Each structure stands twice: as structure tokens, then as C-alpha cells.
Amino acid sequence: MSEFEGIGLDEWLIAQCKAMGISKPSPIQKHCIPPILEGQNCVGCAKTGSGKTAAFALPILQKLSEDRYGPYALVLTPTRELAFQIADQFKVLGKELNINVTVITGGMDMVRQGKDLNVKPHIVVSTPGRLADHYESCDTFSLKKIKFLVLDEADRLLEDTGFAEQLEIIFKKLPKKRQTLLFSATMTPAIRQLQESSEEKVFSWSQSADVMTVDELDQRYVLMNADVKDAYLMHILEKYTTERPKSSIIIFTSTCKYAQILAMMCEDLGFPCVSLHSMLPQKFRLSGLTKFKSDQVKVLIATDVASRGLDIPTVDLIINHNVPNRPRDYVHRVGRTARAGRGGMAITLVTQFDVHLTKSVESYINTKLIEHATDESEVMKILTEVAVSRREAEIRLDERDFGEKREINKRKKLILEGIDPEKEEEERQAKKAKRKDGKSKEEKDAEKRERKEKFKNRFSKKKKAGKAVKQ
Ligand code: AMP
């Protein structure tokens, strides 16, 4: 008897797991699937990348196959990309059932989503904000008969004050009698409180973890002065990609604006990349992520919007351009690499202002970061190019009105006026593309090419000289 049979899964689901290359249940699946199949509420906590999605998707699909109607399950998750990822897993695992899975997130056409909800999909995967919007604008659909509510990344959903109001709107519309499944990387007071306040029995399982990150992850730091941080970033990027040209890298940074600036600098200095942050229109977010996942682009620059749950199996290096304020966010970020038993490296850039934050991270993960050797003299050689490139990126962004608050307010205003901000952005881009640029642009392009060349030459000279690269 296979281990999957042992935990009560049906033959067709085991076959589907096999087709996906999953031969035996991960610990969270082994512990949580049986009680979910028995009808219990469940709280499951395990490290990121431990197979949490399948731990709830498999029993839901099995139950759905016994009693097919829609909407059967609602899965709430904090980010749009995670919603699409979860929906994909449901579609693949539930292929035999030919189920209808609908994703309801911001940044997509609301009318179309309304129609999708009206045809009673079996599984609805949603971010709380957009589902609450649907309830408030056109209450023509109902989730009153769902059998399962899943809160994925429950810690973030329950603790982030931004979600509280939206969750309240949604919860009022759900049936009292249902199974509630909470999945999270960490057990937080909010989750514990919810579990304790439940009138029904709740099965709870947490992976014991003295160390929050996996052994296969090589965790490093580089200490530098804040003024030269970007030059260090480019140096590390250049060195790593030269030594391992096939590798995929995610750079995490603190704000949307910084993510955009870094992306422009990387492009400018010869590293093709995509960016992912909440100020980008949704279709760019998804297409960028697809390009990165399919290996067309090797570098992804993102805010913490990408730090949770995204399953990109081949990421080799995470660079933390800033030390996250919350140690838990560090764990989520570095969890994008060294997944499912593979190795990976995380390098955190630490300035004189971040030493205490780094110490908090180290005590949270119960691991000391080791120093990643860099060649300061090489960094100094690229200081000017990097500084100029950054300045240029900032000017271009200012021209684009990228100021984050301004942009958010602009979007809010458009929405209040009944205009779709995504469409407005598309039209703006189309107009911009039509505009003819004169000589100044050519001059700018020539400067850019020169800078790129200079930047690359420095490293190729170094390589030719055959300097040993210290690790
Ligand atoms: P998740 O934690 O849900 O993001 O899953 C991380 C990755 O592990 C996904 O690519 C899954 O397809 C994969 N996975 C899920 N369950 C298992 C398992 N039992 N054995 C090996 N890989 C798995």
C-alpha cells in the first residue's frame, strides 16, 4: 500500500500526484489530509515550500468528487500571484474531475469575473479585496453553500489590518456550517486565538522547527556603507551570473519605487530582468512572472508581494537588497530558493543602519549568517556607472510620476470616477509608444550603450586577467 493510500486518498488522485512527480506525502500532507477527509477543521503550519497547497487541495478535490456541485470551496490568499498559482494546482490535481476553477483578484476585469462567479465554479480562489468588492457591487452570486473555506498564508490574512474589513464582509456571506482550513508558514497569536475561539474541534499540526529555514539554504550577508549599496548589488549580481550563467535570481527590495529603480538600473547595466510589485498593472505582473518562471528572464526584482508562497522551483539565489523589518518576511523571501530539497543561496545586503535588524533575523531563524566575500576594489570601479544609472532611473521615474502615494491617489480617483485604472494605463502607454522621440533620445541611448559597455568591460577584463574569485 502506498503512503498516499495509507492517508485515505483515492486512486485517481494518487495517479494525478504521480503524474506531477509527487510519489509520497510530505509531512504536512501526511498529518493534515486524514483529519480534513474526516471532516475536521484544520490548522496546518509548516515551512514554505513544504507542499501546503496540496495538503488542502487533495482532500477538497476528493470530497468534491463524491458530491459535485459549485461553488464547493473558497480559498482566500493575500496576493494575486498566489491565487493564480493555487488555482493552477487545483486544475492540475483535479484534471480528472474536469472542474471549474475561478480566480477573483484585483487588476482583472470585474464584469468578466462577475459572469464567472455566476456560473457557479467548483473552486473560487480569491484575494479578499476583490471578492469583497464583488459582494458590495453586485451581489448576484452566492457562496452560501460552500463546504470548505481555506485561508492560505493565514498569518498574513489575519494580521494585516488591511484585510480585516474585507474578510468581515466575506465571512458574513459564508455558511456557518463548513470546514475551515488555515494554512500558514508560522503559528501566530492571531491564528491561535481563532483556533481557540472555534466552537468546533480543530485539528492542529505544526512542523517542529527550531530552525525556520531549510538546511540546504546557504545564508550569507555582505556588510557595506549605505551609500555604496547599489554598487555592491551590481557587483554581486555580475560575479554570480558570470560564474553561474544559467542561474535564476530574485532580488527583494523594500518599496515599489525601489523595485522599479533597480529594475531600470539592471536593464541599463546589461542584466535583463522583470519586476513584480503592486504598482504594476496586473497583466505586467503576471507576464513578468511567467517570463521568469519559464526561464526567459533570469532576474526578478520584487517587493514582498512575491515573498509569499510563490513556487518557482529553479531559483538559485535570493538577494535581499534590504533587511526586512520583520524577521518572518526574511523567512518568506529566502523560502523562494532551496525548495523541495534543492540547494540555494541567500545574500543579504546589510548597511550600518541594519545591524540590529540582521541580529533579529539571526535569532528568529536560529542561524548565524556567514559573511559573503566581495572584492571592494572591484566595487569601487563601478561606483560611478552605477550611480549615474541610478540617477537616470530616478529622473525617468519622476517624469513618469511614479511617486507611489501620488499614483495610488491617482488610481483611487480614477476608480471613484468610474474609470478602470488598468485601461487608462494601457491607453497612456499606447500614446507614449506613438510619440516620436527626437535626437535627445538617440543621445541618451548612445550614452546608455556606452555605460553598459564600460560596465561589462570592467568585468571581462577582470575575467581575462584570470583573477581567482574568492568565495
Ligand atoms: P507549496 O508548499 O504548496 O508551495 O508546494 C511547493 C512545491 O512542492 C510545489 O511545486 C508542489 O508541486 C511540490 N509538492 C507538493 N507536495 C509534494 C510532495 N508530497 N512531494 C514532493 N513535492 C511536493
UniProtKB/TrEMBL annotation:
InterPro entries reported in the protein's UniProt record: DEAD/DEAH_box_helicase_dom, DEAD_box_RNA_helicase, Helicase_ATP-bd, Helicase_C-like, P-loop_NTPase, RNA-helicase_DEAD-box_CS, RNA_helicase_DEAD_Q_motif
Coiled-coil annotation: which residues? none
Which stretches make up the DEAD-box RNA helicase Q domain?
A: 2-30
Motif segment (Q motif): 2-30
Q: What class of enzyme is it?
A: hydrolase
Q: Which PROSITE patterns match?
A: DEAD_ATP_HELICASE, HELICASE_ATP_BIND_1, HELICASE_CTER, Q_MOTIF
Ranges of compositional bias, category Basic residues: 454-471
UniProt-recorded Gene Ontology molecular function terms: helicase activity
Regarding protein family, the annotation reads: Belongs to the DEAD box helicase family.
Q: What is this protein called?
A: RNA helicase
Q: What is the lineage of its organism?
A: Eukaryota, Metazoa, Spiralia, Lophotrochozoa, Mollusca
